[in-house]
Design goal:
The chain is of the alpha+beta class. It has three helices and four strands; from the N terminus they run E-E-E-E-H-H-H. It is about 45% helix and about 20% strand. The protein has a four-stranded mixed sheet, with helices on one face.
Length: about 100
């Protein structure tokens, strides 16, 4: 999968960038900033890990979008294990969708 330069999450576009270092204080593979609408991915990972991190951060973004109407979802947005599972399932579903579209061509 090609990592796009930006992505629409809910009503907001997020710019995606690949960085050599995201946060020197923590060992992060990705980070989403809801204020600046930036999504950063660690550059020195293989494509599969990069995709997984992208979907993990998109899961954070989707949960953030849902907070306005469902304030209790904040607990899930901050639960890294929940977000990891959601991101993995989003990735599987999205890649399956892409594969099915390619097979029909």
């Amino acid at each position: 999968m090609i990592i796009p330069k930006r992505i629409l999450i809910g009503q907001h576009y997020y710019n995606i960038s690949k960085c050599w270092l995201i946060d020197w204080k923590r060992d992060l593979a990705g980070q989403i900033n809801y204020i600046t609408k930036d999504l950063k991915l660690l550059k020195n990972t293989d494509n599969r890990e990069l995709e997984g991190t992208l979907f993990h951060e998109v899961a954070h973004g989707l949960l953030k979008e849902l907070e306005f109407n469902y304030p209790k979802i904040t607990a899930f947005r901050n639960d890294e294990k929940f977000v990891q599972e959601l991101g993995l399932n989003l990735r599987k579903t999205f890649l399956d969708l892409l594969n099915n579209q390619e097979a029909k061509r």
